[in-house]
Fold this protein.
Amino acid sequence: MEKIAVKIKEREKLYEVLIGSSISASIAEFIGKRHKNRKIGVITDDNLKNLCQKTVLNALKPLSPLLMSIPSGEKSKSREMKDKIEDRLLENKYGRDTVIIAFGGGVIGDLAGFVASTFDRGVPIIHVPTTLLAMVDSSIGGKTAVNTKHGKNLIGTTYQPDAVFADLDFLESLPQGEFISGMAEIIKIAATSDKALFEFIENNNRKILNRDKAALIHIIKRAIELKKDVVEKDEKESGLRQILNLGHTLGHALENYHNYKKKHGHCISIGLAIESKIANLIGKLSSNEAKRIEALLNRFNLPTTVEKNVDIDKIVEIMKIDKKARNQKPRFVILEKIGKIKSEKNNFSFEVHESIVRKAVELYRK
Ligand code: NAD
């Protein structure tokens, strides 16, 4: 089993991310050691209930955990669902002595993390990510959230877990569309900070698509290390953490434009291709490297273009309310090279003239 230690300096919180196969018994062992006599609440979604029962729940059986399964999908990341889970815990006399386990993708991780951060003023949470995206991205870094009618992820906390257990066996049942969605985030982090990882993915794309365990362990471990390096330096996104938003100014606008019906990773993939073009148009990234990024996304069957009939005016309007925007001017993370982001002092996102943004989107309209 591989181990990566995450150290959040501000609150001296230290936790481990464990990566391996068949690690349910290790979760039981960890809880036995660290959280002896605590009551365990396991939050999962209906698609994963059986997998959860056969694995983690089975390993924890002697500790009589309470299983809370909710409908799968983004709609469950709501204040109403948070209330329901909290009521279930309270009805079952759970209190200060609770430990929460989040078994699922980013939706379960974000929601369960938020529940844990406020339940009885905060109880420990252990993440057991089951999607590639959750393993390399959402379970690392402590962001929790629910959505409201006003937008995505607008209410939440920053709350670090006690441990993360990434079991590669769980990826076996993951649908291909979800798998490649996670690949978009791995390609993103490689493009921002690690040319060697980017090249490894280029050279091993077939193996990765076939979910070869050795190749997967390599890219998952490296992607987690890279995200860990960023969140250790900037937990609250006041500087460096902005680099994780490469492809996200446009990607988030597309998600919003499509009413969150398109997969997050697929919108981020389009965002990565177009934002690479933006970096090229302003003279930062070479056209050869912009093309390499687009080609790699395409090799994973990820989309890189917007539909012909897309309303560019509306997308530009949505980008003005992006979290990085200042004075209603959208800002972008700019690639200088594969593996290198533009930065000035502690600033990692930059305003780009609207005409350039429109031109780049036009070029990727198919
Ligand atoms: P998800 O949690 O909705 O999971 C996708 C689908 O796959 C669901 O239907 C789920 O039931 C199913 N699934 C999960 N694991 C499976 C498995 N092993 N086998 C079969 N089916 C499985 O989506 P996601 O892509 O994991 O996460 C997206 C969410 O993560 C978004 O809400 C996004 O905002 C959030 N996110 C958070 C952060 C963060 O830092 N907190 C970062 C990135 C994304």
In short: The longest strand covers residues 13-20.
